[in-house]
Amino acid sequence: MAPEKPQWRELHTEVVTTGLCTGCAGCVVACPYDVLGYDESAGTYRPFHVDEHGGPDDCTYGQRGCTLCTRACPRFRTWEGEIDQFLFGRPRTEDEVYGIAEQVLFARAVDPELHAAGQDGGLVSAMLVHALEADLVDAALVSVTEDGGAGKAVPTVARTRAEVLAAAGSRYTYSANPLAYGAAIAEGAERLALVGMSCQASVPAVMAARRAGKVARRFTLTIGLLCSKTFHEDVFTELLDQRYGIAQGDIVRVNIKGAMQVSTRDGGYHEVPLKEARAWTRDGCKLCPDFAAEHADVSTGGIGAFPDWTLVIVRTARGRELLAGMVEAGAVEVRPIEDDPGALVLLERLSRVSRRRWPDSADPGPRRIPLQSS
Ligand SMILES: Cc1cc2nc3c(=O)[nH]c(=O)nc-3n(C[C@H](O)[C@H](O)[C@H](O)COP(=O)(O)OP(=O)(O)OC[C@H]3O[C@@H](n4cnc5c(N)ncnc54)[C@H](O)[C@@H]3O)c2cc1C
Ligand code: SF4
Ligand code: SF4
Fold this sequence. Notes:
Blueprint: H1 8-16, H2 26-30, E1 36-39, E2 46-49, H3 60-63, H4 68-71, H5 79-88, E3 103-109, H6 112-117, H7 123-133, E4 139-145, E5 153-158, H8 161-167, H9 181-186, E6 192-197, H10 198-201, H11 203-209, H12 214-218, E7 219-225, H13 234-241, E8 251-256, E9 259-264, E10 269-273, H14 274-277, E11 298-301, E12 310-314, H15 317-328, E13 332-336, H16 341-355
Parallel strand pairs: 4-6, 6-7, 7-11
Antiparallel strand pairs: 1-2, 3-12, 3-13, 4-5, 8-9, 9-10, 11-12
Helix pairs in contact: 5-11, 7-8
The structure holds flavin-adenine dinucleotide and iron/sulfur cluster (2 copies).
């Protein structure tokens, strides 16, 4: 029997219509025939197949042997085990709840402008500036807001320090940063850094593991953001404005640390309990098992006792070398995780919570890690 060649038809049935699809856009970017679109109307964030060439649930190129969309999907079948094996050369053990890591530590940007602009320690922005200035990458796929304020997050390309600074900070609506790939390539970039939430941070790795060709080879550095959910953009109007009287245009910063912490232009500060925001959780996040950006070169988060430091999980040689180069260049300060052991406990707990979402009906891999701590 000829080997199976899974294509859009299988991706649609097994990932898109089952709720496993995160909206990461890996498939859209990998499609060599441009027959996949991306719907982000009304909080949808899902790929779709154009009517020509097969209709919504089949693909004429797939019928002829193209499998690239399934090879770029970090939720298709045995994705997690395949990527672990490819990136780290072994399956993870049951203790590796937040994925395979070389080291966990805290770091922050030394440059005061990058530090101030960052959500936590400004480490992600410092890494991008360093990688661009040291000619390690040509461009970075990041996110800004549509209105330049606190509105809907959208993907964009950063090639300069000023563009990195303009994209710094966290927005809690979804931005499929891989979608900025086309713009970066059109401008001549060949070596790309991707900044993305956990779901997106598995895109370059799954593409490389499943040999998705030129697109895979262009992703040179992957920086992941720890993530438990994103919100539908209606959270601004329906929750923050209508219930709390906080106009979207007045918001200068949102942070999520136990509560939704909202800072406004007039110097005001409001805390909204997270359980109130739960109803605006984006559908694509509801079955996501990955809190810790488990397949990034470096994963970054804001947990821990030090508000202006970034928690860093160094996973690959590429991540280790980048951070070591920055320490040597005096671009970052680091401190050991032992300064706040509670951060590791929380990292493990939040990772376990996310893993419980993965449904029994899908590949059993992500549920193999014990879902309760012993
Ligand atoms: C939606 C979301 C949820 C998160 N949830 C958690 C969490 O539960 N626990 C935790 O510890 N950390 C979480 N983080 C990570 C944390 O907020 C910081 O991004 C991380 O600590 C890096 O901080 P920094 O100061 O080093 O980064 P910065 O220097 O501020 O750089 C942040 C980078 O993230 C990009 N970015 C911002 N918003 C988005 C977005 N919506 N989509 C894609 N890219 C974006 C920016 O373009 C920028 O390049 C989350 C981040 C996001 C975006
Ligand atoms: S999870 Fe990502 S790659 Fe997979 S179908 Fe959804 S958007 Fe495409
Ligand atoms: S929880 Fe975060 S990582 Fe998971 S699908 Fe949602 S945005 Fe992606």
